[in-house]
Amino acid sequence: MAKITYIAFDGTVYDVEARDGSTVMENAVRNSIPGIEAECGGACACATCHVYVDPAWLEATGEPEPMEEDMLDFASDVQPNSRLSCQIRVSAALDGLIVRIPESQG
Questions:
Q1: What is the DSSP letter of 51?
Q2: InterPro entries attached here (predicted)?
């Protein structure tokens, strides 16, 4: 299990215990984290699970694959640390991960 901290646009903090092998998006949906819409259910076919990865965690979460980069073109207010949370797989190496949720989703 890894602890993931979601920070909503309004600053509200949500701490979640996440199972290894699940995704950051799945855990947000499972725990009713506001702002993660996940319209495609994790198929990397939309940009409604867009998050900003805390800079300290960029190396641990890795670079987006080309398909994810294409989908990020549909997200609002993309930044260098933007990721689709459906593409970040939880592991023990991500224990303590912090992601911020943008004001609106693509």
A1: E
A2: 2Fe-2S_ferredoxin-like_sf, 2Fe-2S_ferredoxin-type, Adrenodoxin-like, Adrenodoxin_Fe-S_BS, Beta-grasp_dom_sf
Residue 59: other Cβ atoms inside 10 A: 9
The closest alpha carbon to 53, from 75, 24, 73, belongs to 24
Domains within the chain, CATH numbers bracketed: 2-100 (3.10.20.30)
Q: Residue with structure tokens 């996440």?
A: 18
Do 88 and 94 form a contact (C-beta atoms < 8 A)?
A: yes
d(CA 83, CA 49): 8
Instruction: Please report how many Cα atoms fall inside a 13 Å half-sphere around the Cα of residue 52, on the Cβ side.
Output: 15
- 48 contact partners, CB below 8 Å, separation of at least 6: 36, 37, 38, 39, 40, 105, 106
pLDDT in tens, 28-80: 999 999 999 999 999 999 999 999 999 999 999 999 999 999 999 999 999 99
Q: Which amino acid is at 34?
A: P
